[in-house]
């Protein structure tokens, strides 16, 4: 599988007898698949091997990218919307095409033109989602700020039903980008579900279970959750730091 893609994995598991900790279910095609419990061995091994130099390198990189203006914060949301079902390369292209949002924010035709020109895919949905969200955000930007009396997970879960098109993972991704060193949420993409021995499309109900484990491990190892996730992603991509894609966030 191409590791550059961030898409959900819709390939069904092969049929076999359930083992302890697994249950069989029928999918949409009336075929049996196995619904598994998380497996923690590989994740624990990753944290045990965390390199302090890598943590410091990623922390130093991301502490400079926290947005401090309303414009910068909105652009992080744009990036999250552009990350849905696409490669990181297309994610960057989509973001660069849309970051000058004043050119399209009240013009759905211009938004569609830019989406098609950059080739990031899912044009109709992205246009609909971004058009709706941009109005929501600028009508009430305070709604998209964390309240003092809510946890990060509560904050994320409050936003999810209000934002069309992102769901739990990509809303978490936006919060990670908004506050890379403090966000206590977990964007569980297909790679992270697989890291826990799960299938994202079939085991999505395990989201907060694996998120809780990841957050607890990060507390134990004194590493921000997003920094740990960035290190894991860069291990997959064989990159030392995130500049190969996050460079586009530096001036926003």
Write up this protein.
The protein is mostly helical and 252 residues long. Helices cover 51% and strands 3% of the residues. The protein has 12 helices and 2 strands; from the N terminus they run E-E-H-H-H-H-H-H-H-H-H-H-H-H. The protein has helices at 41-48, 52-62, 70-82, 88-98, 108-118, 123-139, 152-159, 167-178, 190-195, 207-221, 225-237, 243-246; strands at residues 23-26, 32-35. Mean pLDDT is 89; it is low at 1-27.
Fraction in beta strands: under 5%
Helix content bin: 40-55%
Strand line-up of the largest beta sheet: 1-2
Topology as a string of helices (H) and strands (E): EEHHHHHHHHHHHH
State the end-to-end CA separation: 33 Å
Largest sheet: 2 strands, antiparallel
- Rg to the nearest angstrom? 19 Å
* Envelope shape: globular
Label the structural class: mainly alpha
Mean pLDDT: 89
Number of helices: 12
The overall strand count is: 2
Q: Give the low-confidence spans.
A: 1-27
């Amino acid at each position: 599988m191409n590791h550059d893609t961030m898409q959900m994995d819709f390939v069904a598991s092969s049929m076999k007898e359930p083992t302890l900790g697994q249950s069989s279910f029928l999918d949409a095609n009336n075929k049996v698949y196995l619904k598994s419990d998380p497996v923690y061995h590989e994740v624990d091994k990753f944290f045990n091997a965390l390199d302090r130099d890598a943590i410091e390198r990623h922390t130093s990189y991301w502490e400079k990218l926290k947005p401090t203006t309303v414009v910068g914060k909105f652009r992080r949301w744009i990036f999250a919307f552009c990350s849905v079902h696409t490669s990181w390369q297309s994610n960057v292209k989509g973001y660069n095409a849309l970051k000058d949002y004043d050119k399209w924010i009240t013009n759905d035709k211009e938004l569609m033109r830019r989406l098609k020109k950059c080739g990031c895919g899912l044009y109709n949905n992205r246009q609909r989602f971004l058009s709706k969200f941009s109005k929501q955000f600028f009508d009430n930007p305070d709604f998209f700020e964390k309240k003092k009396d809510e946890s990060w997970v509560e904050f994320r879960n409050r936003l999810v039903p209000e934002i069309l098109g992102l769901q739990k993972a990509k809303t978490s991704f936006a919060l990670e980008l908004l506050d890379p060193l403090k966000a206590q949420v977990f964007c569980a993409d297909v790679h992270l579900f697989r890291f826990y021995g799960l299938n994202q499309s079939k085991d999505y109900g395990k989201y907060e279970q694996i998120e809780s484990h990841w957050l607890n491990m990060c507390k134990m190892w004194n590493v921000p959750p997003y920094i740990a996730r960035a290190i894991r992603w860069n291990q997959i991509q064989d990159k030392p730091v995130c500049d190969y894609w996050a460079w586009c966030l530096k001036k926003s």
